[in-house]
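Researcher: Please predict.
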Amino acid sequence: MIIFKFGGASVKDADAVRQLSNIVKSNCDEKLIIVVSAMGKTTNALERLIYSYFNRSSDLNSIFNEIKQFHYDIINNLFDDNNEKLLFIDDFKQDIDNDFIKLSEKISEASSSDYDFEYDRIINFGEIISSKIVSAYLNFTNINNKWIDIRDCLKTDDNYREAKVDWDISTPLISKYFDFSDNFNIYLTQGFIASSMTGAASSLGREGSDYTASILAYILNAKSISVWKDVPGFLNADPKWFVKTEKLNEISYQEAIELAFYGAKIIHPKTIKPIQNKSIPLYVKSFFNPEDEGTVIRSINHKLKLVPIYIRKQNQVLLSISPLDFSFIIEKNISKIFALFAKYKIKVNLTQNSAISLSVCISNNTSKLRQLINDLNKEYKVLYNKNAELITIRHYTDNAVNKVIKNKKILLEQKSRNTARFVLSDAITNADDK
């Protein structure tokens, strides 16, 4: 049994869904599980909807209609008036109608005070509707498959938006739902989403569809995972940033974990460990050229000589935190500071401390940043740099470093034997600025 994971770019429009079906059709000779993400930028649109819903903004209905129309445009492009399958199409469209009715009813009711809980109750509609469209189209084109709601069998705790998988409960349920005993060789399900033990919708963290594929692979002892991307494989830099990139033909599990930890977008950070434990290879394949070899992540015993690999995180904030009483930054202060980061669920991308200050680099994409700074200001002096970028170079060389720091102001620099990291920016502001 093999697992295919298709991200948002692989189901962004009707043509992409058709290409997905071509890839699946070419791999119907063995048992297959397909994991799909929300279509295109739907997750971003749903996040705007959630923000508007939670704050009762005037654009709530227009965002909802935008999301609904986007999906119906794809549906109308995919399904023609096939007289032999009109009943099938009508039933499918009614099912999608019902999902949008549920979403409409949800955003019409009052929200609770827990933003993360409300987030997971709404964000899952992206994957549910996307997977139903893809499953219906495959069946429409005679690629028989069974649609499975992953929320029925993938169980988590109630740490909404970053839920932790309950492996003991999920393992027997997933084994039951994906047992291939019902004359289907293809199952299709959703990535990223799950449900808590109370039955409430939960999610595994942004871009968590890769992790879902890894969970299924581990529990079901898959032969391999193929992650289909809009790039030819694992590149040494984002092609939207670097003009000349190089494809890595193979990398080890350990290297993939390092790269994911530093922010490489090609693979979700939690994906590698489960499949490493069972030596399940993961292939990063080209969605547009499926015959190309792509990149394989697997156990590698020989030494690989890798080119410099560049990872860029934009829209960063560098916080410089100093005690107001000029005491040292020691264990007591550090633990208090990081307790506040944990309180607001703000991830730290880089830290560095001196005797009397702690520098922390975070992504500026959280509504809780101002609350964090206000809390820190009670005991600490806080300065920060906005509009910074965090550059990580694995297997760096002097030439590689010079490429990224040229004409830039270095705010923070860290180097180890294999990795160089830089926080780069143009302006400094302080915590009192709005």
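Model: The longest helix spans residues 115-140.
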